[in-house]
């Protein structure tokens, strides 16, 4: 479980030539797919709150605002971290083993 | 845009619409009407008698009576407390006793209690004295021997004969001889017996020695029982003493000294039989007194318990009556002296409820005249009233701590509910710590009812009040922890394997050049390969700094958009055209552009240096970007943005004051025509303070300076606020590093040893460090910084916060306030 690079053995993997999408395209697909997942989760959450606590139009609007804000915040956080790792300029350089 | 207008209003977004009302209450139904309004709790009365002192007001006598009654109730409560009885809380709301009846009852009870107390005090004192007498008799008897002199016929209590104890054989012989020489004469030897507090015995003896020049004999023995000192209500240790002396003047001196030292002197007969007789009497007296005292205490306890049953209800009633009379004091008598006139604010939605309450009051008090309730216009700004529930209350308090919203302006609390815990989580970002916080929050929420009725310490009360904030903070912390991939600083491979591996089979270059990325990006969060690598910090720092900037720009844009909605609501098109638009353009052309560059750099993987790009955009905008180019036409685009930003500054600064001045002069010109025709109306309106701006008061310089300050604040603030968001990076880095240190240098180090003791000690130190430093200190720190980001960077874009809170006359608020 403690899988820090310090402790785990890096098993050498032979690079297999696989006919698949180049890295860039696949990353973009991953990005779009996950964004879609966030949107769907947001929609489901707002529908759930509409079903569970339906207390009048003004309250509904407030709950909708809260859910949209939460979804947007969470998506932004994920998207930023994902985009930053898509085309990295530096790579992990392992520490010297003592 | 009409779509926005047609949307239903959002619950918490703007404060409730208020109306200013005037009430005319006939005297007989006034009291009842005000108490029903107090039960409803939706009307804030304005104090019409502001200038009068408390003693000049109408109902000052009733208020005094209520104050007197509450004093008596407090006295009774004290007595109950002193008697160590726990008052049984009687929550049944019986029919309310009349106030006058209650007053009479209270007076009786107080009188009775005082008498009982006085009696029992006297009894207790007598009891004490007898107890001391008993002890003196018993102990002093040891010092005194029965006299064998034939002069016993003259036995009075203060006998002049000498009585010697066996212990003082050497000194006794001299006195014996003296005894044999002469019988009791005026200058014979006498003794004084008594009891003195143990703490004073030494000084007492020394004083006696000095006064009698050593011609005395002091015997003492400690009393075996402690005595209750009625003054201090404590048990004091006392010492029995017998002073033998010779001479009459010496006796007087000794008695004075006894009095000075608080020693009680009791006459002890020397004869054994007589002593025994008196001891018996004293003992029987003591037992009698004891039973009397106990019976008295029992009776008092019964009385107190029966009163204590009703006490909370009575205290409540008296508090309410006092509040009602205080409110009645705020009303004015009208010219006919038959009605009371009151003014106040109430929310518009409460109109029917209030009217119904007033109707009930008229019926219940069998009054002939109806209560008149009508809406008036007011020129002062209404109070701000947000209807909050348990969940939103904490956030509203957070916003109110900075400043109460102006009437009907956009309430930042709506967005704070989500963004505040979220920014907190960005700074904490560890799902292990998030789980601990979640457990704490769940405990507080599950025991809500129990903790809510208790009286908590100030720290626990704050924690309890913010339990829902803590819940959201913990949930977002878990989310951010999963993204940062930190569980007590340990990364996991929850979402698949890492995207990095060695370049070749031997992994020879993994420590010099590093791994390479061979698959798709790690799907959720930071790749676990980064933890522990040498290039971890450069990567994470770059990521987190850019993330902070992006969040900052997003939140500030939200703030400016809220200012648009405010201007729209107050129909202030001047603000929209000359404040919202230039602000949006300025912020986005500079820092929005920076965000765009960041995202483009990430998407394309270019090696452009963004610092360089931004700085040289200002220093030499026409220069070729070379390798820092991210997209074609960038130079031209940058020049355009720079021009736009420069234009917006005078756009924000100049037009608004001039237009305001023009509008003012138009209004003034119009006014002079109006006032000739409608002068009578202006005479009638006397209590409305003229808050229409006086035309001469419009000071152009002041308005211009105000606008300049606002512009400078925004322009400089755009840079400083954006940089301020970097605290998100700073705190997250600090948290992660602290967590790493505790994990690696405490837990792993201790786990490296084989001994179980060291491992346990290491675990304990790790647990304490995590709990106190990370969970408490870092949490507070992140809370504070997230708060600052909201209060300053978010709210100064749109919030004025200079309103005042709606404080209705409410019985429920009374109970909360006084507890």
Low-confidence stretches of chain A: 13-21
Major β-sheet profile of chain B? 5 strands, antiparallel
Largest interface (CB within 8 Å) is between: A-B, 47 and 72 residues
Oligomeric assembly: heterodimer
End-to-end Cα distance of chain B: 50 Å
Question: Which structural class should the secondary elements of chain A be placed in?
Answer: mainly alpha
Radius of gyration of chain A in whole Å, from Cα? 21 Å
Shape of chain B: flat
Please report which band the strand proportion of chain B falls in: under 5%, 5-15%, 15-25%, 25-35%, 35-45% or over 45%.
5-15%
**How does the overall form of chain A come out from the CA principal axes?**
elongated
Question: How would you sum up the major sheet of chain A?
Answer: none
Number of strands of chain B: 11
Task: Tell me the span between the first and last alpha carbons of chain A.
Answer: 21 Å
Derived structural class of chain B:
alpha+beta
**Estimated radius of gyration of chain B:** 43 Å
Strand-residue fraction of chain A?
A: under 5%
Give the count of helical stretches of chain A.
2
Q: Tell me roughly what share of residues is in helical segments of chain B.
A: 55-70%
Mean pLDDT of chain B: 84
**Roughly how much helix do the residues of chain A carry, as a percent range?**
55-70%
């Amino acid at each position: 479980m403690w899988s820090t690079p310090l402790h785990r053995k890096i098993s050498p993997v032979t690079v297999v030539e696989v006919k698949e999408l180049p890295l860039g395209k696949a990353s973009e697909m991953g990005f779009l797919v996950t964004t879609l997942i966030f949107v769907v989760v947001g929609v489901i959450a707002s529908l759930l709150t509409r079903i569970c606590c339906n207390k009048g139009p003004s309250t509904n609007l407030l709950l909708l605002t809260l859910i949209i804000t939460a979804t947007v915040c969470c998506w932004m956080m994920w998207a930023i971290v994902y985009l930053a790792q898509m085309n990295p300029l530096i790579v992990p350089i392992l520490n010297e083993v003592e | 845009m009409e779509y926005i207008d047609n949307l239903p209003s959002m619950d918490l977004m703007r404060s409730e619409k208020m109306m200013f009302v005037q009430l005319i209450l006939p005297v007989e139904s006034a009291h009842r009407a005000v108490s029903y309004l107090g039960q409803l709790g939706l009307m804030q009365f304005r104090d019409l008698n502001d200038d009068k002192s408390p003693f000049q007001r109408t109902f000052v006598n009733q208020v005094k009576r209520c104050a007197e009654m509450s004093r008596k109730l407090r006295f009774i409560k004290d007595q109950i407390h002193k008697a160590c009885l726990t008052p049984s809380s009687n929550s049944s709301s019986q029919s309310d006793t009349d106030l006058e009846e209650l007053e009479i009852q209270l007076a009786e009870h107080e009188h009775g209690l005082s008498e009982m107390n006085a009696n029992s005090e006297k009894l207790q004192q007598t009891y004490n004295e007898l107890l001391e007498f008993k002890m003196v008799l018993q102990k002093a008897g040891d010092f005194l021997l029965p006299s064998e002199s034939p002069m016993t016929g003259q036995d009075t209590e203060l006998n002049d004969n000498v009585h010697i104890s066996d212990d003082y054989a050497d000194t006794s012989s001299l006195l014996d001889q003296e005894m044999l020489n002469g019988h009791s004469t005026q200058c014979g030897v006498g003794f004084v017996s008594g009891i003195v507090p143990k703490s004073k015995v030494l000084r007492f003896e020394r004083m006696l020695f000095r006064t009698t020049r050593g011609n005395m004999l002091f015997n003492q023995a400690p009393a075996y029982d402690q005595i209750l000192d009625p003054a201090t209500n404590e048990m004091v240790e006392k010492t029995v003493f017998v002073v033998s002396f010779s001479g009459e003047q010496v006796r007087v001196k000794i008695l004075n000294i006894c009095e000075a030292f608080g020693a009680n002197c009791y006459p002890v007969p020397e004869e054994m039989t007589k002593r025994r007789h008196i001891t018996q009497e004293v003992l029987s007296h003591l037992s009698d007194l004891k039973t009397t005292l106990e019976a008295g205490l029992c009776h008092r306890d019964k009385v107190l318990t029966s009163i204590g049953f009703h006490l909370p209800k009575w205290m409540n009633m008296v508090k309410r009556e006092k509040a009602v009379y205080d409110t009645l004091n705020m009303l004015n008598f009208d010219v006919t002296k038959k009605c009371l006139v009151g003014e106040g604010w109430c929310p518009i939605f409460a109109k029917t409820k209030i009217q119904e309450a007033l109707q009930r009051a008229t019926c219940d008090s069998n009054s002939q005249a109806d209560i008149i309730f009508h809406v008036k216009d007011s020129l002062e700004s209404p109070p701000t009233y947000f209807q909050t529930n348990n969940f939103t209350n904490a956030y509203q308090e957070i916003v109110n701590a900075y400043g109460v919203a102006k009437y009907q302006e956009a309430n930042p609390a709506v967005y704070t509910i989500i963004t505040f815990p979220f920014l907190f989580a960005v700074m904490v970002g560890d799902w292990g710590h998030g789980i601990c916080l979640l457990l704490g929050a769940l405990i507080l929420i599950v025991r809500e009812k129990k903790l809510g009725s208790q009286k908590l310490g100030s720290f626990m009360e704050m924690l309890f009040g913010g339990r829902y904030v803590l819940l959201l903070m913990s949930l977002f912390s878990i989310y951010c922890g999963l993204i940062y991939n930190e569980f007590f600083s340990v990364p996991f491979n929850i979402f698949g394997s890492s995207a990095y591996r060695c370049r070749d089979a031997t992994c020879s270059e993994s420590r010099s050049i590093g791994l390479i990325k061979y698959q798709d990006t790690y799907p959720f969060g930071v790749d676990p390969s980064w933890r522990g690598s040498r290039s971890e910090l450069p990567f994470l720092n770059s990521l987190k700094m850019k993330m902070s900037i992006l969040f900052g720009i997003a939140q500030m844009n939200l703030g400016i958009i809220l200012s648009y909605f405010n201007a729209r609501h107050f129909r202030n098109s001047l603000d929209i055209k000359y404040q919202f638009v230039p602000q949006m353009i300025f912020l986005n052309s500079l820092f929005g552009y920076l965000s765009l560059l960041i995202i483009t750099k990430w998407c394309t993987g270019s090696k452009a240096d963004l610092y360089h790009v931004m700085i040289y955009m200002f220093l030499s905008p026409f220069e070729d970007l070379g390798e820092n180019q991210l997209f074609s036409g960038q130079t031209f685009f940058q020049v355009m943005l720079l021009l736009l930003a420069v234009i917006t500054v005078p756009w924000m600064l100049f037009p608004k004051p001039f237009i305001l001045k023009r509008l003012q002069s138009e209004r003034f010109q119009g006014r002079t025509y109006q006032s000739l025709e409608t002068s009578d109306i202006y005479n009638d309106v006397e209590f409305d303070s003229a808050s229409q701006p006086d035309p001469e008061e419009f000071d152009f310089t002041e308005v211009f300076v105000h606008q300049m300050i606002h512009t400078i604040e925004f322009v400089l603030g755009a840079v400083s606020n954006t940089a301020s968001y970097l605290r998100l990076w700073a705190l997250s880095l600090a948290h992660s590093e602290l967590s790493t240190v505790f994990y690696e240098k405490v837990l792993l180090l201790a786990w490296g040893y084989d001994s179980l003791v060291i491992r346990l000690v290491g675990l304990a130190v790790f647990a304490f460090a995590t709990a106190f430093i990370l969970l408490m200190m870092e949490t507070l720190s992140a809370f504070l910084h997230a708060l600052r980001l909201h209060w300053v960077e978010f709210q100064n874009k749109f919030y004025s916060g200079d309103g005042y809170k709606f404080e209705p006359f409410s019985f429920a608020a009374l109970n909360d306030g006084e507890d």
